[in-house]
Design a protein that fits this description.
Its cofactor is FAD. The chain is an alpha/beta fold. 33% of the residues lie in helices and 21% in strands. The protein has an eight-stranded parallel β-barrel with strand order 1-2-3-5-8-9-10-13, surrounded by seven helices. It has a seven-stranded antiparallel β-sheet with strand order 27-24-26-25-29-30-28. It has a five-stranded antiparallel β-sheet with strand order 17-18-22-20-21. Helix 18 crosses helix 20 and helix 20 packs antiparallel against helix 21. The longest helix has 26 residues. The chain is globular and about 90 Å long.
């Protein structure tokens, strides 16, 4: 008797017939409407009566919204693995993670050979499949910066570039009957796909035993392999035999396969619409309920908490892995898991956390924090992981990843009030608001997470007209250090609401925010490339133009050394937040006059064309950047000269200045925990070396004496003086009082920690 504890899923096995090509598509849509989880299709490229399965999978993924799609199973003998890997990753990204890769070694060799494939013996087919899987997974592994080489007997790649990364960790299921294929499944696969009428009950037991033994020898837990069973039958008013009867009989007869034969996924064979509907609406929910009750009574552990010896050996000290709450265990990622490479790092810093928890609700965030507090390791909270400081990951600690809290809801179109999950990305927010004529100024990159930006500041491309992102926050849902979930706004916890807008990472885990969007139509987006050989002069002239331009113009400038001539180039990215192209041209012409123009593009576009949507990527991080940040009221000769020296003398390989001022400075300094309401410019310099002193020493000499504070999100200097630069008095004293009230034990202590007040 075997129950691997997999959450039950259900699907269909649809014939890809091409006589009426819309029929299999409609059956897949019915699969989704019936509440099932996936639609699968045979793959016989040599069969002229069938649609090409890969084309059909792509078409079905586009015609559905929720279900996963898979070949049952794809014929690797006629699909080169390197091409298949990129096709699979592309489909997975296009479908937002709704693809599963079912693979077979090949069976109908005469037909395969007739199509141009190579005839293989059974043993050769297994070896070829193993080589193909190595190539496929290698191409998906974008965390490895090296080129991929696999010198196989049947499949080879020599120095191929990796990527793209799939949207999720694509499971690989193998169709297997014979011992060699079963052992390969145990060693490397994520699932075993088999048809009941071919294998029988005894074959299921023997197949499980073979897979389990191979998995254990490979250092894996047998529960890492999902068991997928294709079943056939008929729904009839009265029972006539196995899976020949009413839905209740199906539930009774299938339950032992989940509880005693380890089956986690049931796939219904056939193209009968009524059977699909009955299977999804009556059998699946009843079988889930029955199996859940039996597992609860038996104390069966969820599959996510079962890991093999190799994964167990990778666990870190100080974390009680067996105590992870059940609601979080299924999605938790440990160092030994294959998904670990995709979640361990941030955008610019490589992390090595001991555990990544991925809650899906505020209640689960509270559970995650309660669990994490009991461990003897650091805690990091991540929304998008794009922060320059890299503090959304750690080494050896716990990361609470809020990426699943990615909801975007328009609450009131008239007032522009929207509710955003902390894990949503600003590009998706922009895309969804544009059809309503709304936008929120939000940084400069669509992949940034909502939670980090909207609790720190948010210096965006429309800031001079519409202010900081935090200036649009009207309320927040917050999980406090003690586990309480509260709403903070002007009337409820107003002191907490004040602190969240500028120092949110210090006082709680924000899970959702209500923001007031602005009425924004098309805008003008401009990118200029300038000769910045007169580096200090270009900065000074750029600053003067920005300060004297209409508020509709917000401009960013990036300076970097150029190996050719000129010695320094400037990239000026500007937005004129209006569709008045004549006014935009006049404003942009003034910018073009500050230096010789090497290139210029400008276009009228929705805001989503500037901060455009991107899919979450597998961040690989790095050593972590060395940066310094400063705020300035004017770009005086001293300021411009000091910043210019950082570039011209090779101290900084990337220097960016962003315009603030305008609407940013309309907000009184004491209204939020971001007190910098008189400066007009924000600057960040990235150091080119590995030593902090290589940037800190020249910055402190040439720039810091003229700075008037800093922008926290762009600062990585850990010295305690930076806290007072970010939060000058009386802001810091007020923050310490809020910290004492809401986080007296300093649980949230990784992002320029504010010490609780002691008086």
């Amino acid at each position: 008797m075997t129950d691997y504890g997999h959450e039950l899923t259900f699907g269909t096995f649809i014939t890809p017939q091409n006589e009426n090509p819309q029929v299999p598509v409609q059956l897949a849509q019915l699969t989704e409407a019936a509440g099932l989880d996936l639609a699968t299709f045979q793959d016989h490229p040599y069969q002229p009566g069938f649609l090409d399965t890969w084309t059909l999978l792509t078409w079905v993924a586009a015609a559905t919204e929720r279900i996963s799609v898979a070949g049952n199973v794809l014929n690797l003998a006629l699909r080169p693995p390197a091409v298949l890997a990129r096709s699979a990753a592309s489909l997975d990204r296009l479908s937002a993670g709704r693809f599963t890769l079912g693979l077979g070694a090949g069976a109908f060799w005469e037909a395969i050979e007739a199509m141009g494939g190579r005839r293989l013996t059974p043993g050769q087919g297994v070896q070829a499949l193993a080589e193909g899987i190595e190539i496929i997974r290698g191409i998906w592994d974008t965390a490895d910066p090296t080129a991929l080489t696999v010198d196989g007997t049947y499949h080879r790649v020599a120095g191929v570039k990796r990527g793209p990364a799939p949207a999720h960790d694509i499971p690989i299921w193998l169709g297997a009957l014979k011992p060699r294929m079963l052992r390969l499944t145990g060693r490397v696969a994520d699932g075993w796909a088999v048809t009941l009428q071919y294998v029988g009950d005894d074959g299921l037991v023997e197949g499980n035993a073979t897979i389990d033994e191979a998995a254990t020898r490979a250092g894996r837990h047998p529960a890492e392999i999902r068991r997928v069973l294709n079943i056939g039958g008929a729904f009839t008013p009265h029972g006539r035999g196995f899976l020949q009867g009413p839905p209740a009989q199906w539930v009774e007869q299938l339950a032992p396969y989940a509880l005693e034969r380890g089956i986690g996924t049931f796939i219904l064979i056939g193209d009968d619409p009524r059977a699909i509907q009955t299977f999804g609406q009556e059998v699946a929910p009843a079988l889930r309920e029955l199996v859940a009750a039996e597992r609860a009574a038996a104390g069966t552990a969820p599959v996510a908490r079962r890991r093999g010896s190799a994964a167990l050996a990778a666990r870190r000290a100080g974390i009680a892995y067996d105590d992870v709450p059940a609601a979080l265990a299924a999605r938790a990622v440990e160092p030994g898991d294959r998904e670990y490479a995709s979640v361990r790092s941030g955008y610019l810093r490589a992390g090595r956390p001991g555990l990544v928890l991925r809650p899906r609700s505020a209640e689960e965030v509270a559970e995650a924090l309660a669990y994490a507090r009991k461990q003897e390791v650091p805690i990091a909270v991540r929304s998008g992981g794009h922060g320059i400081s890299g503090r959304s990951t750690n080494d050896g600690g716990i990361v609470v990843d809020l990426g699943a809290l990615d909801g975007i809801e328009l609450i009131d179109e008239r007032t522009g009030l929207v509710r955003l999950g902390a894990g949503a990305r600003w590009g998706q927010v922009a895309e969804q608001l544009v059809p309503h004529g709304l936008a929120i100024s939000s940084g400069d990159y669509g992949g940034v997470g909502v939670g980090g930006l909207a609790t720190t500041g948010g210096i965006g491309f429309m800031g001079r007209l519409h202010g900081l992102t935090i200036d649009h926050v009207r309320a927040a849902e917050v999980v406090l250090a003690d586990g309480r979930i509260v709403r903070a706004d002007a009337e409820h916890h107003p002191d907490l609401f004040w602190a969240l807008r500028g120092a949110g990472a210090n006082v709680g885990a924000v899970t959702a925010l209500d923001l007031a969007a602005d009425r924004v139509g098309d805008i003008v987006h401009s990118v200029m490339l300038l000769d910045a050989s007169d580096t200090a002069g270009v900065l000074a002239r750029w600053g003067q133009v920005v300060e004297t331009s209409p508020r509709e113009l917000t401009s960013f400038i990036i300076l970097s050394p150029n190996r050719g001539a000129p010695s320094v180039v400037a990239r000026v990215m500007s937005v004129y937040a209006s569709d008045d192209t004549d006014a935009a041209v006049a404003a942009l012409q003034r910018l073009a006059d500050i230096a010789p123009v090497l290139d210029h593009e400008a276009r009228l576009t929705p805001y989503s064309g500037v901060v455009f949507p991107t899919q979450p990527h597998h961040a690989t991080g790095g050593l972590g950047p060395i940066t310094r940040s400063g705020l300035f009221t004017h770009l005086t000769p001293e300021v411009s000269g000091g910043l210019a020296r950082l570039v011209t003398e090779g101290v900084s390989y990337f220097l960016q200045l962003r315009a603030v001022g305008g609407a940013v400075n309309d907000v009184p300094a004491g209204d939020t925990a971001y007190p910098h309401r008189h400066q007009n410019f924000s600057a960040v310099a990235f150091g080119g070396g590995v030593r902090r002193a290589a940037l800190d020493e020249p910055w402190d000499r040439w720039v810091y004496p003229h700075a008037e504070g800093l922008y926290l999100s762009f600062e990585t200097d850990p010295r305690p003086e930076r806290l007072r630069d970010a939060f000058p008095e009386p802001t810091l004293s007020r923050l310490r009082q809020v910290k004492r009230a809401y986080d007296p034990d300093a649980v949230f202590n990784t992002n320029f920690p504010v010490p609780p007040a002691t008086d």
